[in-house]
Structures are given as structure tokens and as C-alpha cells.
Amino acid sequence: MEILTVENYDEMSAEAANIIAQLLRLKQNAVLGLATGSTPEGLYACLVKMYEEKEIDFEKVTCFNLDEYAGLSPDHPQSYHYYMDRHLFSKVNVKKGNINIPRCGVENIETACRDYDKKIHQSGGIDLQLLGLGLNGHIGFNEPADYLQKDTHLVNLSRETIEANSRFFPTEDDVPRQAITMGVGSIMSAARIMLLASGEKKADAVKQMTCGKVSTHHPASLLQLHRNVLVIIDKEAARLI
Ligand code: F6R
């Protein structure tokens, strides 16, 4: 696990954007695994700027998002479909047909999950998987538990996650209780993983992820077992390591 500590959120975002830009220059048809949440907003803004300045091109890029809330339609302002459209997809030339985000409003969620993993596999696999870090160590929505699921699946969100994500909703009661997430197997199959974390609140989770025991009770610690992980954190998130 390589750890790059930078001064602040803006530097973290710029470093991460440079790494994605390098990949897109080397491989025009790269497959990107993408995340949502507060952490990658700055990164997406940098990518949009690079695209506008004709430094990068998304025409042949394929994207797979990590997760989506159950019960929110794609046009709900808090859905991850809406988030991705707002921060990236509507602002660059990625083709609609190359955008993949787990769908929850489907009749057979199990089949939809299987198809999602199949599609990742058929695309040739994810070249670079972007991750944020939950306060409880979750990656995607793989919550701390005795056992973790390998493939894309429906998950019950933990109390901590519901509480942490209530900042995006009018009240905590409005936060969906379930989501579809790529499993840890799907995440760990990516050729390269880039995890971003910023702010003092993430310091403990960063410590457990980088120096703690590998445990399903801290899903991000499993990243210690991956061959090609880059963690980009700011000074505050790195405070305990
Ligand atoms: C989002 C995701 C989550 C977030 C994590 C951190 O697609 O998979 O694991 O990355 O909850 O969220 P923020 O960045 O809002 O602190």
C-alpha cells in the first residue's frame, strides 16, 4: 500500500485527477470504477476542468459506480445517479451507454447484481477503482461485519453510515436503509485502487486501514492485501499514522 500525504483537500483532489488523467492518456478505453460522497467532489471538478481544457477525453471510457441507494429513483437529488450526472457525466463526453451504476428499482435485484458483475468482467475488468473511506472503515457500502460478500449485492446500511450520510438528507429518517454495492471481491479485482480520505474525522479509519489488523470488521483493511493500492490523504487524515 503506497501512501501519499498531501497538504490539504485541494491537493488531494489534484493529485488524484492527475493519476486518472495519466491513465486516460495511456489507455483511451480505460475502465474506471467510481465513487460518490463528499470526498471525490474536488477530484471530479479537476477532471471536468481538464476535459474542458482538452487535456483528457472520455469518449472511449467506461465507468462502473460502486453503489446506489435502494429506493431512490435515478432522478432523486440524493441518488448516486443524480450525483454522478451533476459532478461528472453531464460535463464530459462519456457515452451514456458506457455509464454503469447499480440499479435498485428493478424487479429482480439478485439478477441485476449478477449482471453488474458480469458486465464488469466483460468490459475487461476495472483498470482503476476510486474509493472513499467510511468513518467505520466501509468501502463501497461493504459495512463492518463477521462476513463480507464478494460480489455485488443488496446491503443493509449500518447505523453509523445512516447517521454519517444524514447530512445529505432533510432528516435521518429520510436516509435509505439499504443500498446495492459492489462486493469486496469486485473491488479487489481492480488492477489498481486509489483511495482518497480527507479531514481529521477520517484519521482513525485511515490508521486502522493502513496499520491495523486485516479484518472484515474494518473492510478497508482488506486493501492491505491488494498489490496496487495508492492512498492519497491530507495531513489531517494522516494525523494518527
Ligand atoms: C460512495 C461510497 C462510500 C463513500 C464513503 C465516504 O460511493 O462508496 O464508501 O466513499 O462513505 O463518504 P464521504 O466521501 O462522503 O466521506
Strand count, sense and barrel status of the largest sheet are: 7 strands, parallel
* Helical segment count: 7
Termini distance? Answer: 13 Å
What portion of residues is helical?
25-40%
- Share of β-strand residues: 15-25%
Rg, nearest Å: 17 Å
Shape field: globular
Present as ligands are: fructose -6-phosphate
Return the average pLDDT rounded to an integer: 96
Unreliable runs: none
What is the total number of structural domains? 1
CATH-defined architecture: 3-Layer(aba) Sandwich
Strand order of the largest sheet: 1-10-9-6-2-3-5
Structural commentary:
With 241 residues, this protein is α/β, with parallel strands linked by helices. The chain has one domain: Rossmann fold, CATH 3.40.50. It has seven helices and ten strands. The strands form two sheets. It has a seven-stranded parallel beta sheet, with helices on one face. β2, α2 and β3 (62-65) form a beta-alpha-beta unit. α1 (9-26) crosses α2 (41-52). The two termini are 13 Å apart. Fructose -6-phosphate binds at residues 35-39, 66-67, 132-134, 138-141.
